[in-house]
Design brief:
eight-stranded antiparallel beta barrel, 17 strands, single chain, six-stranded antiparallel beta sheet, mainly beta, globular
Length: about 240
């Protein structure tokens, strides 16, 4: 996608890293604002885990489209993840325990569409640099993730959506953000292609998504919408709805 700048997998802000189905959310009628009825309005993460590997990590997936929430002993001994990919919910588990003073790398396994799958999650001390270092998902060989550590004061939200360019190009546009720390990251992928683009930026006081000084969208409740010009003067339109 020409309008999204290619970047490396390490984002410029500390907690976001690389790695459309809305049946769980509802829109009552054409005049009502969309609302994600299953999405949290306060963080799941406990304050005791804010500076720990333990806690909650949330993010987005492209390849096709989805979200993931990872629970590393957040108030219990459970180490689990819930992935929703193309509308299918998968529960993943791991048996790797957290060891004090060491970074954490663990495979999570489960079943997707009757096939075994695995994803390997890595995070540094204090919950830094969370990332999915590898994945093996049937039918999704090139899945890409962005993950973020949620804290007790910073709710993580995920949006799934699309983009369209006036030259006819269309694709997936998924977004993860925290309004509390005014940061966001996204993944975009053109329909029918395997390469992805990604980027990051800030959320300003008007709830606008700003990347390199350019507004690419505006958050309104549980929706994000926007349009801007690319380097070829084509109009790019993005639209998404919160699903996590």
């Amino acid at each position: 996608m020409r309008f999204f700048k290619k970047v490396t997998l390490q984002f410029i802000f500390p907690i976001f890293l690389i790695g459309i189905l809305f049946t769980s959310c509802s829109k009552d009628d054409d005049t009502s604002a969309y609302s994600c009825t299953t999405c949290k309005t306060t963080p799941d993460a406990l304050a005791v885990n804010d500076a720990s590997i333990k806690g909650i990590y949330k993010g987005i997936i492209v390849g096709s489209t989805g979200t993931i929430s990872i629970n590393i002993q957040n108030g219990t001994s459970a180490i689990t993840a819930t992935m929703i990919l193309d509308g299918v919910t998968v529960t993943l588990t791991s048996t790797v325990s957290v060891v004090d003073g060491q970074s954490y790398v663990a495979p999570f396994t489960g079943t997707f569409n009757e096939s075994p799958i695995s994803v390997t999650f890595s995070v540094g001390l204090g919950g830094s640099t969370p990332t999915m270092v590898s994945s093996s998902i049937s039918g999704h060989p090139n899945a890409v993730f962005i993950l973020s550590k949620e804290t007790s004061t910073s709710l993580i939200e995920a949006f799934e959506g699309t983009y369209a360019i006036s030259d006819g190009t269309k694709g997936i546009f998924n977004l993860v953000l925290s309004r509390a720390i005014s940061k966001f990251g996204y993944i975009a992928k053109e329909n029918g292609q395997t390469d992805t683009d990604s980027g990051s930026g800030t959320v300003n006081s008007s709830n606008q998504l700003v990347e390199d000084g350019r507004v690419i969208g505006t958050i309104s409740g549980d929706e994000v919408n926007g349009s801007f010009k690319d380097s070829d003067n084509n109009t790019v339109t993005v639209a998404g709805k919160r699903t996590l």
